[in-house]
Amino acid sequence: MAMCSTFCPRVSTHLNCKPFSFSPAKTRRFFVSFKAFSSQTSASTPKADDTPASIGFLGLGIMGSPMAQNLIKAGRDVTVWNRTKSKCEPLISMGAKYKSSPEEVAASCGVTFAMLADPESAMDVACGKYGAAKGMGPGKGYVDVSTVDGETSKLICEHIRATGAHFLEAPVSGSKKPAEDGQLIFLTAGDNVLYETVAPLLDIMGKSRFYLGEVGNGAAMKLVVNMVMGSMMASFSEGLVLSEKVGLDPSVLVEVISQGAISAPMYAMKGPSMVKSLYPTAFPLKHQQKDLRLALGLAESVSQPTPIAAATNELYKVAKSHGLSDQDFSAVIEALKVKLQHQT
Ligand SMILES: NC(=O)C1=CN([C@@H]2O[C@H](COP(=O)(O)OP(=O)(O)OC[C@H]3O[C@@H](n4cnc5c(N)ncnc54)[C@H](OP(=O)(O)O)[C@@H]3O)[C@@H](O)[C@H]2O)C=CC1
Ligand SMILES: O=CCCC(=O)O
Q1: Could you tell me the superkingdom of the organism this chain comes from (predicted)?
Q2: Which residues pair with 79 in a beta bridge?
Q3: Model ipTM value
Q4: I want to staple 76 with a disulfide (CB 3.0 to 4.6 A). Which of 71, 151, 240, 274 is the partner?
Q5: Which element (helix H / strand E) includes 14?
């Protein structure tokens, strides 16, 4: 399979770690692979020639577009579909093929990726009237990289497996820039045979991949990560607003935080623009609120108290109600600046 030479070195260099046991109480096995400086082979090392010749990509939003573009740049044969057709044009001009429904994409491709907004759109695109499942069959694979809840993922999995095809959930950690740079982190679960088959493709789009076992585990991991991230951003926002109110320079706060134990790339990256009340969208606020809502549902399903996440979710809901849904999630800070309606 032809691949662009600039991407080849990353595809062929992987360190496959031994599976390790996560919880002594449960017997789940977790695998993790990183882009690293070893070409060590093992039973689970994927072979590049096993990857399907034709790859489908459904959903070309902020994340899906650069992910599909990286596959094309790597020389892969990619067929795209998006609800709003105009978003397919840049990819078509890079060499992608186009089909007019998810069903047709799945029918013409060995493996189909989907990057949709939320559980409803992920379900519809996979299992709706002209959904991907209609074009699936034995020997094919469906990889859902959208962030959804485990129940939705299991339902999609059932529909896909009923056709004889394999299913992998593979939500990603990392935002617009890591998607552009092929530096995403894949949190996969489902059919191991499909995981191994698509590993070289995941390695074109990402810097590491985790295999977490049964369908639902990838979704759960993603929701826990984003629950933490949403709360961190809300807390950071409170700090910025408070610092300014007590007469400090919030830019200096960003600098102080970036040098201490609580430093995080997210604060250093988003802080300077937040101080200027600018929120260029990388991760839309509406998706962060969706993830908090789904994380709260996950916590509820196991009776786990998550009071911080619950309060955080309320703040994102306020931000949404002020028309900030399509801004970056760092715009949640605006919810803290809003004056109470009946304030005197
Ligand atoms: N942005 C980020 O930083 C990250 C996002 N994610 C997750 O990835 C997923 C996609 O995110 P992102 O690319 O940012 O989101 P966007 O809002 O940019 O893109 C959403 C995609 O879903 C499609 N879509 C929405 N509703 C429907 C529907 N009813 N039927 C068919 N297609 C639909 C959109 O199509 P159309 O173009 O027609 O609107 C678009 O292709 C989300 O689950 C998000 O939580 C994960 C990691 C990082
Ligand atoms: O789901 C979005 C995650 C964004 C990120 O990991 O930076």
Answers
A1: Eukaryota
A2: 56, 97
A3: 0.99
A4: 71
A5: strand 14-16
Buried b (16+ CB within 10 A) or exposed e, 257-285: beeeeeeeebbeebbeebbeeebebbbbb
Which band of pLDDT confidence, cut at 50, 70 and 90, is reported for residue 50?
confident
Residues having CB within 6 Å of any atom of ligand 2: 147, 173-175, 226, 283
Max CA pair span of the chain: 69
Residues 67/115, Cβ–Cβ less than 8 Å = yes
Q: What is the pTM of this model?
A: 0.90
Nearest ligand, CA of residue 62? Answer: 1
Q: Band the pLDDT of 343: cuts 50, 70, 90.
A: very low
Q: Which amino acid is at 191?
A: D
Residue 291 alpha carbon to ligand 1 centre in Å: 13
Q: Measured in whole angstroms, how far is the alpha carbon of residue 188 from the centre of its chain?
A: 11
| Pocket probe mutation, ligand 2, options 207, 226, 269, max atoms within 8 Å of Cβ | 226
Q: Secondary structure of 130-168 in the HEC alphabet? A: CCHHHHCCCCCEEEECCCCCHHHHHHHHHHHHHCCCEEE
Distance 160 CA to ligand 1 centre (A): 21
- Is 222 designated active site? yes
Smallest Cα–Cα separation from 123: which of 151, 98, 104, 99?
A: 151
What is the predicted pLDDT for the residue at 35? Answer: 52
β-partners of residue 143 are: 113, 168
Burial (CB count within 10 angstroms: exposed 0-12, middle 13-18, buried 19+), residue 208: buried
The closest ligand to the CA of 148 turns out to be 1
Q: Tokens 């057709």 map to which residue? A: 85
Digit-coded pLDDT (tens) for 92-146: 999 999 999 999 999 999 999 999 999 999 999 999 999 999 999 999 999 999 9
Looking up tokens 């991949």 gives 209
